[in-house]
Amino acid sequence: MILRRLLSGLLLLGWVMTAHAGIYAFEFDDPAKEARFKRLSEELRCLVCQNQTLADSGAGLALDLRKELHQMVLRNASDEEIKTFMVSRYGDFVLYNPPVKSSTYLLWFGPFVLVVIALVILIMAIRRNRERPVKALSPDDLKRAQRLLAGKDKEV
Amino acid sequence: MSENKIRPFIPLIVFIGLCVLLGIGLGLNPREVPSPLINKPAPAFKLPQLHAPDQFLSEADMKGKVVMFNVWASWCAACRQEHGFLMELYKQNIIPIYGLNYKDEAEDAKRWLIQYGGNPYAASAHDLSGRVGIDWGVYGVPETFILDKRGMIRYKHIGPVHYQVWQETLLPIIQQLQAEPL
Questions:
Q1: Do strands B153-158 and B67-72 pair parallel, antiparallel, or not at all (unpaired)?
Q2: Euclidean distance between CA atoms A17 and A15, whole angstroms
Q3: Domain-by-domain residue ranges, chain A?
């Protein structure tokens, strides 16, 4: 009973929050601008709920920034201009696609370095295995192996 | 051979290394995003003052002295935590505190100040729309900027100001900035 109440409460909360986020409608005079707005708002991070884009987030700041973005798209600001606007205020962190520069080298190239290290280790292990001498069988063992291979597997 | 002695421990060493990295990751505060505004001039603004809407507050009013610029709102729970401490600073008259009342109704803001023990601000700019907040890169209230005498942003603290932050971080920076020539 309590669980059911809790669940319906959560559902209601979810509904209220989506309803709240959906109130604001952005209007465009040109579908291309709308597409740009959509693309850019999916490339920019909401700093309040950090794992959401501006498009996804219901936070107040995200709505404000969508309004800014909307204005900039309407007056045909370039992508470069819009990104500079955001980065100069919130830092590279607002970009879901961070620029390649000295402070992000580890982020961009770290995984490849790890892959190279793993490959080197793998190749070394294979080589070492190959170089290991195969021990020759003693005559007794050889006979036993032949017996087993011939199907006469009755051990003495 | 020493190599063979170390070998069985390699997985353990890798595991401990991972643990250390993850431990450091847990200790970091992901909300503390470094501000690109550090060492840049304070973004220009001109807003009505909360307590005197016919007068304006601008970034130029904060020049010539080291000041704290504190972003606050009556709807912000963490602002309540720091308010008492800001009142202490105000009473001790260590540094002028200016406020940016962010996305708040003027009546709510004024009532909140009375309710929680007073007004520590030399003046608060009333940013109803939050547009000035965007120029200052505000994303979580409270935030506190420290501006030097030339009006440059020299430090930004995210989250409530409390005694420990003040003693360990803010006060040393303020003292250093106050010693700088104009």
A1: unpaired
A2: 5
A3: 2-99, 104-149
How many whole angstroms separate alpha carbon B50 and alpha carbon B60?
17
Q: Which residues of B touch A (CB under 8 A)?
A: 30-31, 33-37, 103, 129-131, 134-140
Q: What are the distances in angstroms from CA B139 to CA A19, A62, A142, B3, B154?
A: 23, 9, 77, 53, 18
The answer to whether the CB atoms of B137 and A89 lie below 8 A apart is: yes
For residue B48, give its domain range.
41-179
Q: What is the largest CA-CA distance in chain B?
A: 84
Instruction: Write the DSSP assignment of A8-60 as a string of letters.
Output: HHHHHHHHHHHHHHHS-----SSHHHHHHHHHHHHHBB-SSSTTSBTTT--SH
Number of Cβ atoms within 10 Å of the Cβ of B51: 16
- Residue A12, pLDDT > 70, answer no
ipTM for the predicted complex comes to: 0.81
Residue B110 in any domain: the answer is yes
Phi-psi sector, B68: left (phi>0), alpha (psi -120 to 50), beta: beta
Q: Rounded to whole angstroms, how far apart are CA atoms A114 and A102?
A: 18
Q: How confident is the model at residue B30 (pLDDT cuts 50, 70, 90)?
A: confident
Is residue B13 one of the residues assigned to a domain? no
Establish if B112 belongs to a structural domain: yes
* pLDDT digits 0-9 by tens, A17-60: 554 545 578 888 889 999 999 999 999 998 888 888 998 888 88
Nearest alpha carbon to residue B178 among B67, B93, B42, B66? B66
Question: Residue B139 belongs to a domain with what CATH number?
Answer: 3.40.30.10
Please give the tally of structural domains in chain B.
1
Using a CB-CB cut-off of 8 Å, the residues of chain A touching B30 are 50
1.10.8.640, 3.30.365.10, 1.10.10.10, 3.40.640.10: CATH of A2-99? 1.10.8.640
- List the end-to-end C-alpha distance of chain B, in Å, as a whole number: 67
